[in-house]
Structure formats: structure tokens, C-alpha cells
Amino acid sequence: MESGLIVFSGNANRPLAERICRALNCDLGNASVTSFSDGETRVEIESNVRGRDVFIVQPTCAPANHHIMEALIMADACRRSSAQRITLVVPYFGYGRQERKSAPRTPITAKLVADLFASAGFDRVLSLELHTSAIQGFFNLPVDHLFAKPVFAKYLATRPDILEDLIVVSPDAGGVERARALAKYFNCGLAIVDKRRDRPNESTVMNLIGDVKGRNCLIVDDICDTGGSLAKTADALAENGAKGVYAVISHPVLSGQALARIEASALKEFICTDSIPLSEKSIKSSKIIQLTISDLFAEAIRRIHNSDSVSSLFV
Ligand code: R5P
Question: Measuring CA to CA, which residue among 276, 285, 280 is closest to residue 60?
């Protein structure tokens, strides 16, 4: 246990916060985060935070607005209780896909949310696989941006059946950098899918760049939301002669028909992190494998607390 450090959790992913605390060898701080009868969030920090280095674990997954509000109010409570420093540990940064004006008269909601966190009193941010790295610049605070690659790479090292004849696939042009990093790590080829989106939450596979015939394809993406992109990419790869199709997805958002789409698709395995908790149904799916990021986050928290370098974790 590191002295002066205290970790709290909102209601978005308490099991992850508990796993992080186990890795840090400390207990989760006591805080009551509930709702009043009318639905307003009610927070009471029960552990003493005066002069302490506070970490609040709260991925802003669905219901995103509610979880954002919990984090804001928890920060406000800690700030008013004389915490020395407050870090937002946001393993999944919701609204990250609204990071630019995609059409006239549309908002940049990711920036708005970043501003809200700063106004509430957070002093720094620790996150994983932001939708684009540029979101770091939306905060006028230090941001430590972790990648899921070490967690996936460690697991894949135990799966020679996937690594044999491997080719890494980016499901869209925007994800090439992320996919290339894994292809470089495994010293294998890279294929790219040309995906188009005419409407929100609907995608079409237009072209496949690269030869996937007889290869094990590993799709790399930050988010699987409705499952449309992933299922269509997996099916296109199978139609083009892939031997097996697998996916590593940092954030299993899995809204709407996502699970049914994954189950019905050519995808053999959906490997994800626990940045977002899975539904009971998803846990039971034989295609879904969830790996924990708790050790990675615990190590980052320990280093931030001790003012040690975090850069060796950014690989
Ligand atoms: C898009 O740029 C993201 O990286 C994901 O590919 C996308 O959010 C997945 O969405 P869906 O599962 O709804 O197709």
C-alpha cells in the first residue's frame, strides 16, 4: 500500500476498481454514490481525503451522461474536502468519437466533456486507448494515455493457433496506426478495410486492401459499439478466403444488436479488455474473452503517485 494514495470508484465499473486496488494492495476508499428519489446523483465521500492523492475510477460508458455526472460530483466533493490532487482514471472515455465537427452546426462533445472534468476539479487524467490521441490536447491538464497492446500481446503469446499465418487488419483508415503497432510487434503483414459510413451507427465495407487468403486475420479496433463494422469486416475477410477471423477490441461498448451480430458473424473470437463491464449475456458468449487491464492501471497509478516515469507503459 502506497501512503497518501486513495482510490475511489463511481458506479460505472466497480469490479475493475476493486481489481486495481487488489493489485495496489489497498482497499477501495469508502464513498456513497447513489441517487436521490428524483434521479439526481448523491455523493458522500466517507474516507478522509485531506492532503491525499485521490484517484477516481470511472469509465464513462453507458449510461454515459450519468457516469460523467457521478465523476464530476465525486471530484467536487474531494476538492471541497481538501484533497491534495485528484486524478480521473477513465479507462473508457465516452463521447471520444465526437472529437471534431463532422458536419456543419454539430458540437465537439469530447472537448466539452474534457472541459467539464477540468472545471469539476480534476488535476490530471489517466485513460486507455482514446479514440484519437489528439483528445489529450482537449485537456489543459496532464494526460497519461495507455495502450491495450501489452495486454493483448501477452495473451496472444499464449495462442500460437492465432499467431500462425497472422495478418493484422484495420477495419477502417482511422485505425491504421493502432493496427500497424500490433503488426509491427508480431512482425506480420497489415490489411486495411475501406469502410464508409453514410449514417451514424451504420457502416459498409467497400474494399479490402491486402491479401488475406489462408491467413489468420486479427482485426484491431478501439471500440465495438453496434457491432456493425466488426461483423461486416469479419464476413468480408471470410469471403476473401481468411483461415480464421479474430478481433482485439479495447472497449466492448456492445450496444443494441452487437452481441447477436458478433454471434452470427464469421468472427471466431472477440478478445476485449474490462475497461467496460460486460452484460450477463456477453459474459456467457463463447466467442467473448475479456482480459483485465487492472495490473496496467495499478502500475500507472503507482508511478503517478510516486512521480516516477510512466513512459515505459506507453508501448
Ligand atoms: C470508429 O471509428 C471506431 O473505431 C469503431 O470502428 C466504431 O465505433 C465501431 O462502431 P460499430 O460497432 O457501431 O460499427
Answer: 276
Q: How far apart are CA 231 and CA 287, in angstroms?
A: 13
**Residue-averaged pLDDT of the chain:** 96
The pLDDT score that the predictor gives to residue 71 is 99
Cβ count within 10 A of residue 72: 22
Q: In ligand 1, which atom is closest to the CA atom of 201?
A: 13
| Segment 265-300, tens digit of pLDDT | 999 999 999 999 999 999 999 999 999 999 999 999
Per-residue cell: 276 = 467496460
pLDDT tens sequence across 186-218: 999 999 998 787 777 777 777 899 999 999 999
pTM score of the predicted model: 0.96
Q: How far is the CA of 225 from the centre of ligand 1 (A)?
A: 6
Same domain, 132 and 172: no
* Cα-only R_g, the chain: 20
Contacts 24+ apart (CB under 8 A), 189-195: 189/215, 191/167, 191/217, 191/237, 193/169, 193/233, 193/236, 195/171, 195/229, 195/232, 195/233
Full residue range of the structural domain in which residue 183 is found: 149-291
- State which ligand 1 atom lies nearest to the alpha carbon of 227: 12
Q: Residue 58 maps to which CATH number? A: 3.40.50.2020
